[in-house]
Design a protein that fits this description.
- The protein is mainly α.
- It has four helices and two strands; from the N terminus they run ααβαβα.
- The longest helix is centred in the middle third of the chain and has 15 residues.
- The termini are far apart.
Length: 104
């Protein structure tokens, strides 16, 4: 992927996660929820065949967690690969999963 294409994809993904206006900020200048959305956008730029989301909401406050739960389905709706969500929070799993494999 060329640098120009990567920049265009990054801008597109930042728009999808609602952070296009924060593109020039440093990580320490954004909130925890915004950092999580940036992490999702960064992962989606490369369009990997499998997207692993390991406790994606663990480090954010309750309101940010709900916002991310609401956002994630729309982000992965057109995604061509598989998404694996690892979570210890049953609410995350119930809100986002289409298939559930529980270990325990």
């Amino acid at each position: 992927m060329s640098k120009q294409e990567a920049h265009a994809r990054a801008a597109q993904e930042l728009t999808l996660v609602g952070l296009d206006e924060l593109a020039d900020r440093k990580p320490e200048q954004v909130s925890g929820g915004e950092r999580q959305r940036v992490a999702l956008a960064r992962a989606l730029v490369l369009r990997p065949p499998v997207l692993l989301l390991d406790e994606p909401f663990a480090s954010v406050d309750v309101s940010s967690r709900q916002g991310l739960r609401d956002l994630l389905p729309s982000l992965v709706q057109g995604y061509q690969g598989s998404v694996v969500l690892v979570s210890h929070d049953p609410e995350d799993v119930q809100a986002l999963a289409t298939n559930i494999l529980a270990f325990g």
